[in-house]
Amino acid sequence: MRKITLFLLGMMLFASSSVFSRAFDGTEKMFLRPLAVNFWLDASAKVGFYFFNSTGNEWTEVTHIVGADADQIWGAVVPAGDWTHVIVTRHSGLPLSWDNKWNQSGDIIIPATGNYIESFTEKIDNDPDNPGTTTTWSSLTYTFGTKNTGNWDDTTTWDATFDESNWFGSDIATGAPISKHIIRSAHQVTVSSEASAVEVEVEPNGKLTVSTGITLTVTDQISLRSDDTGTATLVGNVTGNATAYQYLTPLRNWYMSSPMSDAPIPTDYTDPSFIEYYDETETESTPQYVRWKAATGNYEVGKGYVVYPGIGTDGYNFDFTGNLNSGDKAITLTRTVKDSEIGFNLVGNPYPSYLNAQDLLDDNSDDILSTIWYRTKNDDQWTFPTYNIFGVSTGGENLDKIPPMQGFWVRAVANNVELNFTEAMRMHNTTGTSIPFKAPAASLNQILRLEISSGTATDETVIYFNPNALDGYDRADSPKMMNNGTTVPNIFTRLGAEDLVINGMNTIPYDTRIPLFVKGNAGQYTISASEFSNFSTGDKAVLIDNKTSLQVDLSLDNYTFTISEGEVTENRFSVMFPKSGMPTSVDRHSAKNILATVNGNTLSVFANENEIDNEISIFNSVGQRVITQKVNGLKNDINAQFQTGIYIVKLNNRTAKVFVK
Predict the structure, then answer these.
(1) For residue 440, what pLDDT is reported?
(2) Model pLDDT, residue 380
(3) Beta bridge partner(s), residue 203
(4) Which of 99, 96, 122 minimizes the C-alpha distance to 36?
(5) Rounded to a whole number, what is the distance in angstroms from the first to the last CA of the chain?
């Protein structure tokens, strides 16, 4: 019979020549593309592998894994044994046997490598033109891609594919090597036991966490991808060759650092146009750029660099290659120069993960000021987003998580102190989006955030109140780093000789003028309160223009003003928090207005310095003068038993309307 003839032929071939015998352990799979013989598969067909050698044989059923039509891939676990040949068979049903065979291939020699019969020809009985089978072998490996957040070892975390197009459940993806793991955007995978992989790719905004004390060993390459939506992050220890990418837009500076221990600095400056570092020890301070030096060799761990992508108009991925940093790191800071830039060091996040800025400041509070500054250049203008240890920030949202590959400024309090980075500071962004600066957690701070705008450029300053802050200069305050350029204004407060971008106080100094400083070229500007949060009901922030005597409740209005050519503006403005009470309701944009508030039986009138000794008059709603009092200071409290109603307050040619409840 045909089945016996085939089997005997196989044994005779093996006996008469040296045929390779391949050992299988009972877990490996062999794959098949049955539609290479395109009529083999119909609704009732069963496909089998018939394995044999000189002493034994075994059937196994081949089942569909993925694909449709000519792209189908089927597979089966190879029975344990040392097999020399395989025959592909088609049957009318189960069990697989020669009796229910419909079609078959000829004897296919099993190669030393390869697990995929990509194509084969059918053996046709008694056909002299087709005496055997032609076979094409290749190798299939799985690519795993996440289908959700989960554990590395959990099959429900992954889908599998052979071609990164047709995907199937990883629970059936056994018996062949996994050549690549892809962690998709917005998915987080945790490695909680020792693991290895050939290649790992983490897509932009994807997250990989390796538990403490565990190592993920990558034998080929791990890639951390980036695009205009964000960057992949990794927390924990991964060994192996790595490439970390950071998407950059051109024609502006970026402050960066390397997440590698041995990444080389490019020597070809076609793009980026240049890479430089800042040398705080350079004694010359002019010209301004003299402290910037060309970077060569390898990137230094924890050091910040300025990168300028100057070619083209589209964004591109800047890359670092080497071995990823893990474990605690430190960099030595200097404080040597004898000018306003003393102690400023450009450093950088040394990890391929976010860095908790609060922990960094807390752990290094003895060696650096309580502030970090991010500096950026756009349209030829520099600005300084700032974050302080009390969780207060200016110049941008979401600054409490230092992004991977982000450079930033710190200020050393002494020479040769160390800035320490620890594994405990590492984290992923969990806010759902990945942008350079991340949001501070909610706090008990009462925050007044003031913004000045020229229409094309803005600057911010913050006045805030925290019970742990002092009213004198302390770690709750952040020095101002002035914006350079011709169009970016500056707004700040001052304590002693120190200009402050963030001014932290213990309690609200009600009815006290806080000097507010602005600097800008001639032109029109607007001051607004972009944040007024956590204050008590009735609290107000009032901007006082000392030049025009105009007082504006910033909770209700912005204030637009003009700076003249050559005008000195440093003492032009003040901010005041009047004691809780009903504010005036007259037109706040009229220079004739005064500010008056009522708190209980006390009516407070706020005057200018040139109005001392002038007369305050208060009229009731029918025009009767009920009180007259001389101005004896900038704040004048009038105590009286006011009846409920509307009162008009007049000081010289300025008036206000107040409501007494």
Answers:
(1) 30
(2) 53
(3) none
(4) 122
(5) 112
Mean local confidence (pLDDT), 189-210: 98
Assess contact for 209 and 237: CB atoms under 8 A. no
As a whole number, mean pLDDT of residues 396-424 equals 91
Half-sphere exposure in the Cβ direction for 373 (13 Å, CA): 24
Q: For the segment 440-488, what is each residue's pLDDT rounded down to a tens digit? A: 333 468 999 999 999 888 899 999 998 778 888 888 888 888 876 667 8
**Which CA distances in Å does 98 have to 2, 33, 39, 104, 279?**
9, 21, 19, 10, 82
Q: Which helix (H) or strand (E) holds 7?
A: helix 2-16
Two tokens at 211?
Answer: 């538990």
Q: Name which of 296, 299, 324 is nearest 210 in CA terms.
A: 324
Q: Which of helix, strand or coil describes residue 181?
A: strand
Which burial class, exposed, middle or buried, applies to 415 when counting CB atoms under 10 A from its CB (0-12, 13-18, 19+)?
middle
- Three-state SS string over 425-480 comes to HEECCCCCCCCCCCCCCCCCCEEEEEEEECCCCEEEEEEEECCCCCCCCCCCCEEC
Confidence band (pLDDT; 50, 70, 90) for 36? low
Domain ranges of the chain: 2-138, 241-440, 442-580, 595-660
Helix (H) or strand (E) holding 30: strand 29-32
Q: Around Cβ 464, how many Cβ atoms within 10 Å?
A: 23
Handedness of CA 189, 194, 195, 201 (dihedral sign): positive
Instruction: Tell which CATH architecture fits domain 595-660.
Output: Sandwich (2.60)
Question: If pLDDT is split at 50, 70 and 90, which confidence band does 70 have?
Answer: confident
- What CATH fold (topology level) applies to the domain 2-138? Immunoglobulin-like (2.60.40)
Say if residue 347 is exposed, middle or buried (CB neighbours under 10 Å; 0-12, 13-18, 19+).
Answer: buried
Q: State whether the Cα torsion 448-453-456-459 is positive or negative.
A: negative
Q: In this structure, what token pair is assigned to residue 26?
A: 């009972």
How far is 385 from 373, CA to CA, in rounded Å?
Answer: 6
Rounded to whole angstroms, the Cα distance separating 574 from 516 reads: 5
pLDDT > 70? residue 549? yes
Give the containing element (helix H, strand E) for 358: helix 357-363
Instruction: Count other Cβ atoms within 10 Å, centred on residue 496.
Output: 8
CA distances from 25 to 82, 493, 604 (A): 9, 76, 92
**Matching fold, domains 2-138 and 595-660:** yes
Count how many Cα atoms sit within 13 Å of the Cα of residue 97 in the half-sphere of its side chain: 5
Short-list 344, 260, 359, 354, CA closest to 301: 260
What pTM did the predictor assign? Answer: 0.72
**Per-residue pLDDT at 644:** 79
In the numeric block, the tokens 């944009």 are attached to 589
Within 10 Å of residue 25's Cβ, how many Cβ atoms? 9
281/464 Cα distance (integer angstroms): 34
Query: Taking a C-beta distance cutoff of 8 angstroms, is the pair 324, 386 a contact?
Result: no
Q: Cis check for the bond before 95: say yes or no (omega within 30 of 0).
A: yes
Best CA proximity match to 241, nearest among 262, 257, 258: 262
For the chain, state the CA radius of gyration.
37
User: Coil, helix or strand for 505?
Assistant: strand
| Mean residue pLDDT across the chain | 85
For the cut 80, the answer to whether the pLDDT of residue 253 exceeds it is: no
Look at 58-72, 454-468, 526-540, 617-631 and tell me which has the smallest mean pLDDT. 617-631
